[in-house]
């Protein structure tokens, strides 16, 4: 599949888990970013079809990055990832344009269902 997916999380092992799930299911065009600042810069140059972004990160959190990316590209497809207990941030993310959210710890089926639902 030639859809480009960007995974944004400050935890390398979380990026690796999502990447492995996507690779096993035919998504090969994957880019990674370790924080919201890098994500915004990468979005400008890479123009991913979908971004999976953590909410809590250093330098620039996921909500700030989401808002910046949506300002640049109102059609950006972004799914937020959050731990339990961050409901208010999830609500703000959806209001700010996120397509969906996935709760950590991830279940591979949930990640795939979300990605396939958005990318078709």
From TrEMBL:
Q: Under what name is this protein listed?
A: Response regulator
For biological process, the GO terms are:
phosphorelay signal transduction system
InterPro entries annotated for this entry? CheY-like_superfamily, Sig_transdc_resp-reg_receiver, ST_Response_Regulator
Task: Keywords in alphabetical order, please.
Answer: Phosphoprotein
Positions bearing 4-aspartylphosphate: 54
PANTHER family given for it?
TWO-COMPONENT RESPONSE REGULATOR (PTHR43228), TWO-COMPONENT RESPONSE REGULATOR ARR22 (PTHR43228:SF1)
Q: Which residues form the Response regulatory domain?
A: 4-119
Q: Which PROSITE patterns match?
A: RESPONSE_REGULATORY (PS50110)
CDD domains found in the cross-reference section: REC_CheY
Highest taxon, organism lineage: Bacteria
Cited Pfam families: Response_reg
For whether the record's keyword set contains Phosphoprotein, the answer is yes
């Amino acid at each position: 599949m030639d859809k480009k997916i960007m995974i944004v999380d400050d935890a390398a092992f979380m990026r690796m888990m999502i990447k492995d799930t996507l690779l096993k299911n035919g998504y090969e065009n994957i880019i990674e970013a370790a924080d919201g600042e890098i994500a915004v810069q990468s979005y400008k140059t890479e123009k991913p079809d979908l971004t999976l972004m953590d909410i809590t990160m250093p330098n620039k959190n996921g909500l700030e990055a989401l808002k910046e990316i949506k300002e640049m590209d109102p059609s950006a497809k972004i799914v937020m990832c959050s731990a339990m207990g961050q409901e208010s941030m999830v609500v703000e993310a959806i209001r700010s344009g996120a397509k969906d959210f996935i709760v950590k710890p991830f279940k591979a089926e949930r990640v795939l269902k979300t990605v396939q639902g958005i990318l078709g």
